[in-house]
Structures are given as C-alpha cells and as structure tokens.
User: Fold this.
Amino acid sequence: MRGYGSPSGGDGSVFGMSTTVAQDWGYGDPSSGIVNPDYLDLGYGSIRPSRYHAVVLNPGLSVMPDDGGVLIQLRMGQWPGNDAVRGSARSGPFLVRCVNSATGDVYPKDMFGCHAGRVGKEWECETDLRHEILSFALPPLPPAEYDFTIGYGGAGFPHTITVPRAIRVIYRGRSSVTFAGREALPTRFSAGARSPRLTDLQGK
Amino acid sequence: MALAITGTQWINVTTVDVSFNGAVDPEVAGRPNAWSVAATAPAPAVTIYGTAVKTGGLTVAVRIGPAAIPGAAYTISCDIDGNTISVLTTATPTLPVIPSPEWTHGLLRSITGAFGEAVQRFNGKPQTLVCSPLKPGDTSMYVESTLGFPPVGSLILQGNRYTYGSVSPMAFKGIGTSSPQFLTVAPRALVSFDVRSHLPD
Assistant:
C-alpha cells in the first residue's frame, strides 16, 4: 500500500527507479520508518533521516588543535525546537559528542558530553534564540578525524544527528608569551615549562 | 641485489617499522628528509617527521604525524642514493590511540597556557617548535604543527628568515633562506611566522 500523495507513475517505477522497497510513502504507508538515504522522499509525512541534516551541515573538514577549548558553532536552517518557542527561548538540551571516525572512540571521556560553552550549562548545549546556531566547546582530542553526534528529543536523547568527518584534529601551536609568562613567576610555583627547550614535544 | 622494502609493521598510530632486504645507511635513511608518505583518499595527509635506524640497519622506525588513520592505506617512500623505494601499507585497524600526557593541567599551567594562547591569537602570529634537526641544505623543516600557518610564506627561526612553498601537517616544504645556514638547528627551537611577509605592501 502506498500512502496519500505517493508519486507512483502507475507502471511500478517511481522517479525512474524500479526499487521502491526502501521508500517512505508518507501518510498511510505501513512501512514508514524504513528510510534509505539513497531514495529520499521528503514529502508530506516523510520521516527525515538524521543523515539528511548531516549533509546539510558539513561544510568540509576543519582543522582543530588537540588541546580543545575552541567554540564550535553548527549552523543550519532550523534546529529541532525541543518545545522551545523560536525567537523567545533557546532550544535544548542537545548532547554533543565527538566520535573518532576510524576507531569509534567517544569523547569527551571525562564528561557526559561536550561542554556547552555557557556558564552553568555544563554538557547541556543550546542553540541561539533563532534556533539556527548550535554551539559547544571542543574537548581535548587525540589527533584523528572526528564525527559529531548530536542527541536531542528529551530524556535519553532518542534522536541523533550525525555530522560525519566534521573535523580533523592535529597538534596545537605554541606561544612564546606562555613561556615568557611562566618565566616571570617564581620557580617555587609549578607553572609548566618556562622555555621551549624544557618542554615536551608533541608526538614524542 | 637492489635495496627493497620487505615489509612494514605498525606499532601505533604514529610509528611504523619498515624492513629492508639489506642494511641501509643511517646517515641517509635516518633522516626524515629522505622519506615521504602519501595517504590514499579519503585519509587525510600525514607527515614523516622522524626516523631511526635500528641495530643492524635492516629496520627503520618511522614516525608519522600527527597520526595515521587505522585502516587507511599509505604509500611510504624512501629516497636512497637517487633510487626511490616505495611500499603500500595499510595501518592496522586496531592500532592503539595514544592520549596526550599534557591533559592533566595544573592551575598555573592552565592559566599561563590560556593567557599565552589568547595573546597569540590576538596578535595573529602562529608559532611552533622544530621537532627534527634542521641541517644546512635541508629542503623541509619538520615542526610540531602547522596549525594557523598560511600555505605559503616566511618563517623566523633563530633570527634567520626562511621562505616555504607549501605545508603538510607537520612540515614546511621547499624552504629556502637568503642568509646561509651553517649550523644544525636542534629540536625545540621556536619557529614564528613572519607576519610582515604576509601583509600587503
């Protein structure tokens, strides 16, 4: 049975394709919920898979430092509202995690999710008032490629948006100001390496 | 018998042992300038930034940075006496990922680190450290990171100005200098981007 509004051509093919099993035929279709991103039908009642969001979101591989602390802003047309009224309240909470694209390791290890970058919010990430920008702080990560997984939908975060290969992490840069600042402190304070010659090289 | 690579063994995401069918010259194969690596798409580019010839000269420990992708394929090449020897190797899918030992920060260490990083971002001058000895005549400079450096530009290292033509994650390629370099630059020397060279006249 194909639901209301089904775009069948009457000859069994749809959009020129003979394979129709994976289609979501919208309202009235008993097979709705089986969604193949290769055969997207985004008509009335169509279940929009999270991968669709991911394709929209991913602007290309961005390079980030391994010590984290960078405020990431993910922009899309409209983030899920979570019952918040657009324009008057931020949408949230979103649970954002970084997943190693190759090994599947989930980060951050020492927190439930990435820090929201807002005082008092901890891992409960939020959008802006227009529900267009979701922001969070990048945790420290070993050099690799990472996906972002964004959970939403209330308790248990039943829905997930995945941004595949969102960032690439390489070693951080250095700052001579850091060494100069430490050098100005009394040596009784444990402030870290006071000279580049005394520091540990990354990757050694 | 011509020198050839007989096999590779991945130790972790940053180290791979390359075996030869004969002893290699440590003065040549023991320097990262003789080596290169090409990642097979979609794996991102990596850099060979350090090498060490093991006892007997049959095996060379190659350091790859910032990290290889487990399961990805890489072509590792070594240029010895004008002959390029290559091997296609796949990083073991179960390679262990090494966490950074610097993740446990003290209070003052964190404050000074954050302050220095903020000032550096404000003045817009990326800096990094040399991670492999730079000898006179070298065409590549191996550093910890090229994060924030433009693809082409100039560097200041120990008072000398170097130009570079391209970057990889841990190296400046095609370096040149107007003032002759006589001494080897040791690792941990601070490299700064020459901002003046990047600004419009």
The CA atoms of residues 175 and 197 of chain A lie 13 Å apart. Chain A has three domains: 12-47, 54-170, 174-204.
